[in-house]
Design goal:
Layout: E1 2-9, E2 19-27, E3 32-38, H1 44-50, E4 56-59, H2 62-74, H3 78-81, E5 83-86, H4 87-93, H5 100-107, H6 118-131, H7 134-162
Parallel strand pairs: 1-4, 4-5
Antiparallel strand pairs: 1-2, 2-3
C-alpha cells in the first residue's frame, strides 16, 4: 500500500530544528486514513508502526527535505526502507515549479486553509508549545492533513496529464 507522507518542522535545518508533526495518509482519494505523530510522540518505533502496511512512500520534495529530516532526527532511512516517489520531480517534468501550494493552485486542487504556509506552521507550533493553544495545534494538524491528502490528488492530476489524447 502506498503511504503519502509530509512533515512539519520548527525550521529548515535537520541539524538544528525539530519535527513537530509527521502526517501519513493511506487509501484512495475519497476514503483516506490519516495518521499523525505529534511532538514527543515522533519516535522511530512509532513511525515504523504507522508505516507497517506501507510498501512505498510518496512525498513532495521529500527526497531533499522530509526524508532527510526524518533520517537525521530519528535515525530512520525511509529511502533505504521503502520505494520512494517524489512528486516534485513529476511536477518539474510537467513544467510545474514551486512549492506544493503553488502547484496545487496551478492545477486547481482545492485547499481549505489557504492562508497557512510553512512559516505559519512554525508559529502555530510555538503557540501550542508556549501557550498550550489547542486551537493552534488543531490548525497545524488540519494543515498537515490537507498536505498529505492533497498529495494523492496531485498524483492523480499528474497521471491524468500524462495520458495520451484519444482518437480525433
Amino acid at each position: 500500500m502506498k503511504a503519502y507522507l509530509d512533515i512539519e518542522t520548527t525550521g529548515l535545518s535537520p541539524f538544528y530544528d525539530d519535527i513537530t508533526v509527521v502526517g501519513i495518509s493511506f487509501g484512495g482519494v475519497r476514503d483516506q486514513e490519516v495518521i499523525q505523530l505529534v511532538g514527543k510522540d515522533i519516535k522511530a518505533d512509532a513511525l515504523a508502526k504507522a508505516l507497517k502496511s506501507a510498501t512505498s512512500i510518496c512525498t513532495y520534495n521529500g527526497e531533499r527535505f522530509d526524508l532527510r529530516f526524518i533520517h537525521q532526527k530519528l535515525g530512520v532511512d525511509l529511502m533505504a526502507d521503502f520505494q520512494h516517489h517524489d512528486l516534485m520531480h513529476d511536477c518539474w517534468a510537467n513544467g510545474l515549479y514551486g512549492g506544493l501550494k503553488a502547484v496545487e493552485q496551478t492545477l486547481g486542487i482545492q485547499r481549505k486553509l489557504t492562508n497557512i504556509d510553512g512559516l505559519e506552521a512554525v508559529r502555530l507550533w510555538w503557540a501550542y508549545v508556549r501557550r498550550h493553544d489547542q486551537n493552534a495545534l488543531q490548525t497545524l494538524l488540519d494543515y498537515n492533513k490537507e498536505d498529505v491528502l492533497n498529495l494523492k490528488h496531485l498524483e492523480r492530476k499528474l497521471k491524468l496529464s500524462r495520458r495520451p489524447a484519444g482518437p480525433r
